[in-house]
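Morning run. Coffee first, then this:
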Amino acid sequence: MAEGPAAAPPRPPRYFRNDAELSRRDPYKQLTASLNRLVTEHPPDKIAPGGGLYYGPISVAYLFYTLHKLYPDLTVDDYSMNTWSAAYIEQAQANMKQYAGPTTAACGISDDIMALLALFAASAKDRDTVQELCDYAAVTTDEDASNEWLYGRAGYLYLLRLVRASFVDDDDDNDDDDKKTLELIDDTAAEVIDAVLDAPRPWKWHGKAYLGAAHGAVGIITQVVLTDPTMAPRLEPELAALLSYQFESGNFPSHIPPGKDRLVQFCHGAPGVVASLLSIRRFFPALDDRIERVVARARECVLERGLLTKEPCLCHGISGNALALEDREFEHFLSYTTGHEIKCMERDGVLEKSDDPASLWCGEAGRAWAWAVADKRLEKRFLGPLHYLSFHLPSPNLGDFDLPVHLPSPQPPIEQLTYQKRAARNNTPCHSTSTSSAVSQEENLLAESLLAVSPPAPDPFILQHHRCRRPRPCCGARPASQVGLWVAQANGFGSGSGADEVGKWDGVGDRDVAGMDSAGGGGDGRSGCSLGGEWEVW
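And here it is:
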């Protein structure tokens, strides 16, 4: 008798018991170990493109950029955090042609085009790029667009808020151009919020009324209220109704009508609800006592069922669940996310490995962020969609919620600088040195910050400004730059396919630049930039 196909191996249990004594690990030591694993096992040129701020090279670049603000002197394999940020951005930009651009089914923080536009607009205070990002409101306000943050309008609101923060000065004395840009962002955000609030209730994604932070109502409410706190009174009844769905266990259902009490993770379940409620609690004073009780019960659920067997990560793993807890329990959960513990879980057959092991929300980059939170004793906030930046919206009841953003002082304009690439090691980032004897001290400092991700080459490099152009789906056939990129273009070679505008750096912002490869005259160029500016966490 012929044997049938072999049975699939049994899946590991969803979580393991939290019955060990509270423990902790040295967070700085674990942070550096995590970053070393990240760049060694998942170097920039080995990460598949795509994923925006959620997974893929842009998400990893976002981590390194943020860590540079916290650890300006920290290096990994002798390179700074900004250097690694530029290297991963370069990988994303090298694959621009693969990005279809936002659609009504995918217009949130996972879209690569909008993520690159937002990061460049915020870091360089580039008004033209802000206009391009705002033009995508034609997609996000379409009646068929989703509302959740990963693929929908809530994620677009996050990107707009990220950009807006860079155009608000400390003294609130913006010039006329900045004021016009702020008005553009505000008008765009208001239009998107109207679309969210006009959408039929309950909000649905793929036909289901989800409740969680990734695809559901609590994530949508959070992004709307943090964009415009004056919307809180309109959304208070919906938030109150959402709180009523809490299970006796303290967990929350993935969707309504409620099904089984299963998932305890950021995207579906108590951890994401806790993170969201703590971020918007101040705007719902009438619900304050109730939110406090809900959070306490939800944390009990996380303590009991939050040590997941999925590979530790922010979205659906121990690292994200840890961020929903208070200090001692937070550090205890993180002790299960070390490299040694993960290897032990894999050896024992209880580890469900990640499909995106490098990424910010699904892999090593997210584990590194959690260790940084522990080391610096930061507010326990998720990096990415819950890395909140407030709008400067005056409200007679709620006050002024501006968070100042400090950008680097402008550098002197540079007409033309020529650089010689220093030898690189196995496609890892290396610095470039100036071959010009007439450059100033500031120019030499800039030269030291340049990147060369490509293999060593003797060709001199010229710092130039490059914009990739393609038609936007919301603007018909009108070409416009998808994202402004700072590149070091090989002297004497073409600017790469898709580039039709090349100019010199205007000296604004703190710019690290990745090297561009040119295979033969006019070959496809690869470019990269480090993200200047400073965004404060709410």
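Residues 253 and 261 are 6 Å apart (CA to CA). Good start to the day.
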